[in-house]
Every structure is written in C-alpha cells, then in structure tokens.
C-alpha cells in the first residue's frame, strides 16, 4: 500500500509536459530524430513509501508516460514514441518477454520513421537482456538500454538523467553501427562487456578489463572506441519461439555432483559452470560434467570471479573432456550465447568454441 501511495504522487505530476508526437509536433521539429522508448518496468519505474526509501519499493509501477513527463528536456533531443512493453521487476525476466521485446524492436527499426530505440529496464538482469538484443537485433540503428538504482519516488532519483542520456545517445549519429548500448551514470557501455558491479551505488555498471565505450554528459556524446566483435546484422542468430534448456551451476569448496546429475536427468541441452579462478572446477563436479558431455550435453566453462577471461585448456583439459570455454563472457551472458547457438543449430564443442571465440 505504501508503494501505491508513492505511485499516485508521481502520477499526479503534470503529464502535459510530455506526450507522444502529433503531426503538428513533427511539423514543428522535423529535424529531430524519432526515438521509440520501450518501457519494461524495473527500479526506474519503481515507487516507495517516501523519498528516503531506496530499497523497500515496488518495481515497475510507474508507466512510461509518467517517466517521460518528468524529463521535459527530452523534447529538445528527439521526437518520442513511447510504448509500455511490460511492467516487471527484472529479477523476474522471462525468455518469453525477451522474445516479445526483440521482435518489437526489430519491427520498429524496420520502419523508416524510427531512428533508434531506448529500452528502460531493471538493473538485475539488464546485462543479459542487453547481450541478447546485441546478438539478435537486425538493424544498425541505435538501441540503448538504461535503468536506475533508485526508484522514481526517491530523493535524487537517477532514472530521469539516465533516461535523458539514453535518448541522447540513441539520437546521436555516432551510435549507429555500435550494436546494443547501455547508457548509465554518464557512461556508454557495449552490451557485450557491461556488468552490474554494485548492489546500491548509482555507478553500478562497469565494463571490467575493457572499459566503457565512451560517455554522455550535458547533451554531448563521445565514443572513445568502437565495438570489435560481430553483432546485430553480422550474426546468424534470430529470435524464435523455442529456447533450448540451458542452466548454470557453480563450483565451490566441497561441491557435489548432485546438481549436475539432476539437470542431466531433467533433459537440459547445455550447462554453463561458473568455475573458480580461470574456470577451474572441483574434481567431483568436473567428473559429473564430463559424464554430461559424454551424453551430449554441452558444457561451457566460465568463471565466477567477475573479470578476466577463461583460457581454453587452462584449468581443465577442454579437448579431452569436450568442454567449451566462455572466454571473457560471464556465466550469465555465456548462457545467453549458448541458448542462441543451440537454437541456431550449432553442435559439438568445436563448432560451439568457434561461436564463443567469435561473439
């Protein structure tokens, strides 16, 4: 009930400061790019009992029109086409919503009147959604995800500025061809590299080892480097109706083989292991995973560390065991790539290793 009251307070703001573009709006500002803003919920659309509460809030209760209404400066950056795709806490993200979101973005970007897309999202699974879109969007037009660490009702909420910066990046010519981007706390990250690194800080997203692509501040966008690995139009991946069953297990002191055996019995097609260090795996779990690989289950070695990369034939004899190295992908992004690769028909550790080395 407390969250409801905060939501009503936000809803009472003057929404006349923003509305979707009408023909007269377009005639008045024909030079501005048209950016679709797709809302999915998350903390950026969250509300709490009072302005000092940044943890006990309800996510996804503020609608897209309300989010846009509190950022009147958007009208100087782009013509906005808002759309509410979902209203979820991103911890509850489902693959069916991934399918809906990717298909909708592809449809919008095929329209000559749409110059780019911004997606508002929860922070918990943003890096997974961003990487999925990075591999499946079939356009070189900008797609930018953004989010917030503080709910919309909070004192010094970070969502409004992140939203303005995301639209600014999506409207900028240099963003084209960079794949899916994440604009957060004045930084621009590649979807492949970005990870959430803090449970509370407004600077919660980083690109370990590689660093951000660039920055956005006060309407200025600057890229310091370009994305190198293939993405969007250069991938063979498409969003389909079926998602292969892939799960994640973790190696730690004293781990047993119970989880791996249960997943194999359940019929999974792939297992990503978050190993220690350079993707090393406890002997008990490694034997279980080797048994799984011998039964046709794809095993991908990643690391739980948070940065760095997993060397092939490093901590485990991948060639002998039939394992695949995730390289610099964390376990959660490795799962996304493995699902897409299996759906695209990739089979066997050699073909799959090439996929991970490429993307």
Automatic annotation (TrEMBL):
This is L-asparaginase. Residues 245-346 form the Asparaginase/glutaminase C-terminal domain. SUPFAM superfamilies: Glutaminase/Asparaginase. The keyword Hydrolase applies. PANTHER family: 60 KDA LYSOPHOSPHOLIPASE, L-ASPARAGINASE. Its EC number is 3.5.1.1. Residues 34-227 form the L-asparaginase N-terminal domain. Transmembrane segments: none annotated. The active site is at residues 43, 123. Residues 1-21 form the signal peptide. PROSITE patterns: ASN_GLN_ASE_1, ASN_GLN_ASE_2, ASN_GLN_ASE_3. InterPro entries: AsnASE_II, Asp/glu_Ase-like_sf, Asparaginase/glutaminase-like, Asparaginase/glutaminase_AS1, Asparaginase/glutaminase_AS2, Asparaginase_C, L-asparaginase_C, L-asparaginase_N. GO terms for molecular function: asparaginase activity.
């Amino acid at each position: 009930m407390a969250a409801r009251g905060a939501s009503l307070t936000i809803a009472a703001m003057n929404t006349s400061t923003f509305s979707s573009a009408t023909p007269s709006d377009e005639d008045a500002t024909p030079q501005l790019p048209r950016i679709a803003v797709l809302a999915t919920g998350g903390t950026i659309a969250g509300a709490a009992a009072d302005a000092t509460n940044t943890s006990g809030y309800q996510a996804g209760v503020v609608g897209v029109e309300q989010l846009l209404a509190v950022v009147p400066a958007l009208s100087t950056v782009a013509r906005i086409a808002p759309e509410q795709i979902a209203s979820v806490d991103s911890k509850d993200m489902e693959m069916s919503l991934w399918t809906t979101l990717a298909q909708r973005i592809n449809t919008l970007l095929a329209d000559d009147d749409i110059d780019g897309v911004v997606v508002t999202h929860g922070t918990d699974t943003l890096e997974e959604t961003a990487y999925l879109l990075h591999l499946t969007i079939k356009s070189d037009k900008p797609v930018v995800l953004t989010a917030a660490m503080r709910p919309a009702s909070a004192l010094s909420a970070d969502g409004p500025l992140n939203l303005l910066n995301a639209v600014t990046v999506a409207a900028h010519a240099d963003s084209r061809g960079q794949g899916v981007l994440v604009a957060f706390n004045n930084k621009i990250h590649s979807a492949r590299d970005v990870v959430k690194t803090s449970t509370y800080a407004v600077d919660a997203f980083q690109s370990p080892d590689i660093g951000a692509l660039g920055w956005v501040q006060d309407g200025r966008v600057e890229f310091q480097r370009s994305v190198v690995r293939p993405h969007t139009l250069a991938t063979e991946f498409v969003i389909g109706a079926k998602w292969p069953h892939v799960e994640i297990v973790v190696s730690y002191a004293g781990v047993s083989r119970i989880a791996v055996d249960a997943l194999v019995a359940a019929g999974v097609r792939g297992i990503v292991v978050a190993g220690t260090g350079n993707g090393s795996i406890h002997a008990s779990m490694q034997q279980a995973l080797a048994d799984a690989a011998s039964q046709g289950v794809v095993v991908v070695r990643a690391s739980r560390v948070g940065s760095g990369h997993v060397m092939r034939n490093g901590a485990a004899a991948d060639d002998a065991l039939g394992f695949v190295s995730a390289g610099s992908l964390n376990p959660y992004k490795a799962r996304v790539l493995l699902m897409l690769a299996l759906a695209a028909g990739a089979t066997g550790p050699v073909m799959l290793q090439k996929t991970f080395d490429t993307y």
